[in-house]
Amino acid sequence: MPKPTIKRFGILTSGGDCPGLNAAIRGVAKAASSTYGMEVIGISNGYRGLIYGDARELSAADFSNILTQGGTILGSSREKPFKDRYDPALTDAEAGQDKPELIKETIDRLGLDAIVAIGGNGTNTTAHLLSKEGIKVIGLPKTIDNDIWGTDVSFGFHSAVDIAATSIDRLHSTANSHNRIMVIELMGHKAGWLSLYAGVAAGGDVILLPEIPYDPKEVAKDLELRRAAGKLFSIVVVAEGAMTVAEAAMPKKERKRLREEASYPTIGYRVAAEIEKDTGMETRLTVLGYLQRGGTPIPYDRVLATAFGTSAAEMLARGQFGRMVAMRDSHVASVPLSEVAGRTRTVPIDHHLVETARLVGTSFGDGR
Ligand code: F6P
């Protein structure tokens, strides 16, 4: 066992929550305190707690009995201290106070030797920037979107797939009873992982992903072909970041403008309207929303979060900073935060699961 290089560290959860955050906190804290004798300081509400000095020492009772608990005992926020850098409320100075400087002051005041930041792309990008400022940071990948560069999987993702697939299963029976088209919109931000996995797991007939722009006419054609073959209902899984071929070809600003003009609340509404208009088939929409982020993690995510957490504790002990814990080829490893920062891991269009889906007759609305 390595003699720990540090004595006291802060731990925070930042960005959108997901199942498994508490399991990860427990993994880090248990290994760090009982195995390496470190002191664990819980930072409240992500980087916001570091800026404003909202923190408390955690004892064994805090991280006991939280393995299966959803959410995060530390709270979370989408605070990006390097993006919205100055807080005018804190000072009379015209520019406002510099948040990264406030973070350094908090770290000094609390006597923290290092920070463990659990989060997604934004969190790990901030972790990298803090690392460049000389702070010892270790990142841990969590997100239902599974879009963090450098790791094959993030915890939280498979729990969300489970929730989404179970929801689609439930749509099947009601779709069947009413001979309807059921559109279900899933989260995933700019990546289609969640829709791809849940769509394949639950037998979605059409899956629309941001990475494979769709043509509404092709979607309509495929649904009509199914109906002609005697399948009187269909399930259409839409990732929140999905876009048409025409949209993919235009600048982001133009796409945003046209969407605002069309004024559908989300992409799912538009897809449902397109289908009803193009096919005349009765269509209903479900936007699954935050249900995908709530509740207890499935056992796979508990195991993954625990393994990532204990690995972070070992890295703290060994003094391996400026890195994010990662899953690489079925092994827990780590990657430099500099490689992770500012990047997004999207679905490669030739991903084996895309091919698998095509082989069982799933349409991606791209005419293939
Ligand atoms: O990153 C997780 C996620 O749930 C995305 O899938 C979604 O786009 C976003 O967060 C929603 O963010 P917010 O919690 O800020 O509404």
Characteristic key phrases:
7-stranded mixed beta sheet, Rossmann fold, alpha/beta, binds 6-O-phosphono-beta-D-fructofuranose, 13 strands, 2 domains, elongated
CATH topology of the largest domain: the name is Rossmann fold
Compute the number of structural domains: 2
Q: What characteristic shape results from the CA principal axes?
A: elongated
Named once each, the bound ligands are: 6-O-phosphono-beta-D-fructofuranose
What is the CATH class of the largest domain? Answer: Alpha Beta
Beta-strand content estimate? 15-25%
Strand numbers in spatial order across the main sheet: 3-2-1-6-7-12-13
Blueprint of the fold:
Blueprint: E1 8-13, H1 21-35, E2 39-43, H2 47-52, E3 55-58, E4 86-87, E5 97-98, H3 99-110, E6 114-119, H4 121-132, E7 137-141, H5 157-178, E8 181-186, H6 193-201, E9 206-208, H7 216-228, E10 234-239, H8 245-248, H9 252-262, H10 267-279, E11 283-287, H11 299-318, E12 323-328, E13 331-336, H12 337-340, H13 352-359
Parallel strand pairs: 1-2, 1-6, 6-7, 7-12, 8-10, 8-11, 9-10
Antiparallel strand pairs: 2-3, 4-5, 12-13
Helix pairs in contact: 1-11, 5-6, 7-10
The chain binds 6-O-phosphono-beta-D-fructofuranose.
